[in-house]
Amino acid sequence: MIHRGGTRRLVASSVVVLLCAALMALYIADRAGADVTPCQAARAASAARSDTITGSGARTVVIGDSWSVGLGLDEPAGSWPAQLPGEVHVEGFSGSGFSETASRCGDVSFAARTPRATLGGADLVVVEGGLNDFDQPPASTTRGFERLLDALADHRVVVVGPADAPSRSAGARRVDALLERLAREHHVPYVSTLDLDLDYLDDDLHLTGEGHEDFGRVVAERVGEAAAGLTR
């Protein structure tokens, strides 16, 4: 469900997203003189999702991974952040995480992308991820988490941890435990999603449209509760 009359805006935005993504991919391929690389495709998808804004009201900024981007969906603009209240801006990048080395596309970690994500201000920042940190050393994830909080020092922040994706279940549980501890030590609200039974695509890693709706609905509820006591 798109909040506060955002449906019409979302439909129009979806068309723009698809056109922009296609044009950007063609442009990149033409410039490179070769097929688009996975990193180029990820950047194009990230830019396209960033241009799609849903809802109205207080400005909510989501910093996340491929789940925020909507990888695998026919309409990426319907990814789970569309369930959040307010005017929702998404700064997602497939394959990214808390760790600087989680992605093969350079440092596109959450902390590295925070300045751009919050350039227009934010009444609330929701950071979602952890599945791409499944194989990272705890020290690397910890450094990334602390870099992120430093970059968001003047913002209201809620961290949403990884769901129990079947292909990365063991890693998700390790990362969830680490993030929960770090959030507690740094006095940041943490939302665990390990308990959610979600619908996944055939890769057992990314969500179906129904999975996004379920994840977004529950996360919106839990983030609302977690953010209720936050002050700047």
TrEMBL record:
Protein's UniProt keywords contain Oxidoreductase: no
Domain of life: Bacteria
Nucleus is among the record's keywords: no
InterPro entries reported for this sequence: Ester_Hydrolysis_Enzymes, SGNH_hydro, SGNH_hydro_sf
Ranges where the SGNH hydrolase-type esterase domain occurs: 62-213
Pfam family, one: Lipase_GDSL_2
Gene Ontology terms for molecular function: hydrolase activity
Keywords: Hydrolase
Protein name per Swiss-Prot or TrEMBL: SGNH/GDSL hydrolase family protein
Species, as recorded: Nocardioides seonyuensis
